[in-house]
Amino acid sequence: MNWRRPVPRPLPEALRRIAELYKIEDDIRGKTHEERCTVRQGMSRPVIDSLAPWLNEQLALISQKTMLAEAIRYTLSRWEGLTRFIDDGRTEIDSNTVKRSIRPIASVDSLYPSYSSIWNIQICSCASRRYGPFVSCMALITSSL
Predict the structure, then answer these.
(1) What distance in Å separates the CA atoms of residue 85 and residue 33, rounded to the nearest whole number?
(2) pLDDT value at residue 135
(3) Reduced to 3 states, what is the DSSP secondary structure of residue 4?
(4) Pairwise CA distance, residues 93 & 113, whole Å
(5) SS3 assignment for 99-128
């Protein structure tokens, strides 16, 4: 018996559109800021301009209580920031490059030794933001053992 949840119908189309944007970014990586901006205006802008209305259409078709509806509302509420990269060739499509470059510098282990009480607070606060209050409580309990 298959216990996996069915994939919501809008999800594959959204992923296809996002993959198209990342393909464009792969093609222009290493080019000048001006070239990147020109290509983005010509190729990424039409994809982005059609994505927002499409997301609104999908939102109207699905239950508003689902996590997918929550994700779509989250995306639309941050639309200006998500599309800023189109008009600025210096801006990346996401912050993954920056996150990868600072990860070795700013890891929890490098900032606080494991015996420090502030380390336990950091673990709990990270768990709370990522997994919710229940896991935060569990992190607090296990870190104090």
Answers:
(1) 11
(2) 39
(3) coil
(4) 35
(5) HHHHCCCCCHHHHCCCCCHHHHHHHHHHHH
